[in-house]
Amino acid sequence: MSTLRPTARTLQIACATVAAALLATGCGRSDDTAAADKDPAKISSGKAKGKLVMWSMGDKADKDLQGLAKKFEQQNPDVTVQITAVPWDAAHEKLTTSIAGGNTPDLSLIGSTWMAEMAAMNGFQATPASFKSSAFFPGQWDTTKYKDTAYGVPFIADTSVIYYRSDITEKAGIKGAPADDWAGYLKDLKAIQATAGKQNAKLRNATQLQVGFNSWLFWLPMVWQQGGDIYDADAKKFTFDTPAVAEALEYYSGIFKDKLTPNDKTDARQNIQNGLIGTVQQGASTGGDLHKNAPELDSKWQTMPLPKATQAAGLAGGSDLAVFKDAKNADAAWKFVKFLTEPENLAAYGEASGNLPAAVGSWSEGELSQNTKMAAFETQLKVTKAPPAITTWQQVADAIDSELEKLAYGKATVADVQKALQSKATSIGTGR
Amino acid sequence: MTTMPTTTLAGQSTQEGDTAGKRPAATPSRRRSTARGRQSRAAWVLAAPFLALFLAFMLLPVVWSTLMSLTDTQSADLRTPLNVSFTGFDNYVRLFQDPQFFTALRNTGVFVLVALPLTLAAGLAAAVALDSGIRRFRAVFRVGFYLPVITSIVAVAVVWKTLLEPHAGLVNTVLAWFGIDGPAWLADTRFALPVMILMAVWRNLGTVMIIMLAGLQSVPQSLMEAAELDGAGAWQRFWRVTFPLLRPALLLTAVTTGIGYLQFFDEPFVMTDGGPLDSTLSATLYAYKQFGNGNYGVASAAGYVVFVLIIALTVLQFRVLRDKD
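ok -> structure tokens follow
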């Protein structure tokens, strides 16, 4: 807060310079300079050679990746892999500036919701044809796509499932998991809520939905579960004005209206651990943290897929591996991607790091196939979908967040929100 | 700040010019000019590192963001800048058609209009109290009031957030002892902004206090005695003698604190992300979010709106508080 803004004098100079610059360049748009290269990259046969630089996000994941890199180096004696850790907070900016400056490493882990934006910047090579989409969960594969071309390979899958405290649900008279359909699940939530402060002395709310930032992650699958969508890729139109969206909004706001969830923005992970809430929708890392922070609760929580309406659906998140357009050693980079995404290697990585493998085959390998708490994730991953692959997605997602917040606080009706979303999204557009 | 080195340069060369003029006319003019040339070249060499950094990290970004505010730049255009079109003042028009930006401006305005006078008044009161009353513990209080200023704002925000936590936070725990069911402070539209105003006042009054204290201690004792002899009471002595003498200190703190407050960002960024329901969204946080969404043009335009507001507030403060003599 202490940095001074530019002085009036520098502004004057700046204005003059800008005027001159604009006159000089004429500043107009030339056509088709940004058309991304759609031809798939080619991989040579034989072993990988040379120096390979990869960026990876997350400090622990990075250490587990080193192990795989060593193995790759043993199989390909002429290659050296250098993995640079980049914190998630700084990753988006670092990636966009490095792509803009043409100063990228060979490959990197890319957050799945960034793929469209960075592919549109013409940052990545199109995925070689030797990678088969059928080897990966369909929703995860779709996160690599921009304008019908894949620009990466799914690596870490991420989706959220329902965690429930069986000690709390049992006291509400629920045998086994809560119901797996919207109507039954709502009924169970109401039953759990009725025990708050009584049978369940510490319990405050039956569940906790995200309010504000990133609440779209939790709401969008509800639209898909209704068999609808918010964007029609063929017509390039937003479809927030459809009945499926209205249903999803009703369902979301109903949970707040019935006070089944708090809107106080407290930490849901902490709340489920402390028994303040009975169920919560979260990703895989929540399970890992629960096990680490409160091992005594291990027998008291379970997971189940998200409840369905007319169909089952979930959101595909996670990260993909992408090779940059300006990669110096693209051939070796693609070979490393191939190596990393082989079911066996990916399973080993997932086991060590606690991440979910995006390759279908990994789930029948080793520990993963036996972990009952992970079974819900596998079921969910089979029905996940990717959010619309448009460069303006983050803006649309922000608009969804702020409209959902109005529902959570009871400041708008479902009809208001639906109308606002359609007009906001349409005015944001889908990018150039 | 930015013009300092150039002034030094100019000063040097005029001095040089003066001495050169006083030299005997016999000195060959050619030698004179080469000596001068050599000296001014040395000056440029010495100034070059600063000038290079200034050009690269101050002037260029300013020019760049001005340009961006007049175009439809998005993050996807970073690699292919030729795709950008000049759109004139479209971004500014878009900005003023966005109700969210008005909410952001209003929040920033409320924050400045409430927090700035409160900070100045609290800082002045603390300085007067320290100067007159609690002499024995002055050092302790001075440190106590100043400590929040030197603590990182992010650390302060995180600590306050923990204190205000609805279920487990200290504030609501204490309230519960008295049977009061405290609100979810930062998730409540009625309390989120006032809490941040309170926090800003608590945090910044130390700066005002230190500067005012220096001002108070430089008030000549003879003036006070003279006023006392003339029959002025304590209150009159303060308003008629002390306060006018503090005017420069007040102007300094009002301008610097005001500029800081108009850039209100860290608190909502760390504590609420602008929520709930945009009740703590500030103009700079709005700009930041637009940058994050790849809307570079609109974000730059928002930055310039804040810049103009800062100029306006500063000019206003100079008008009101400038020494009349």
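The first helix of chain A runs from residue 8 to 25.
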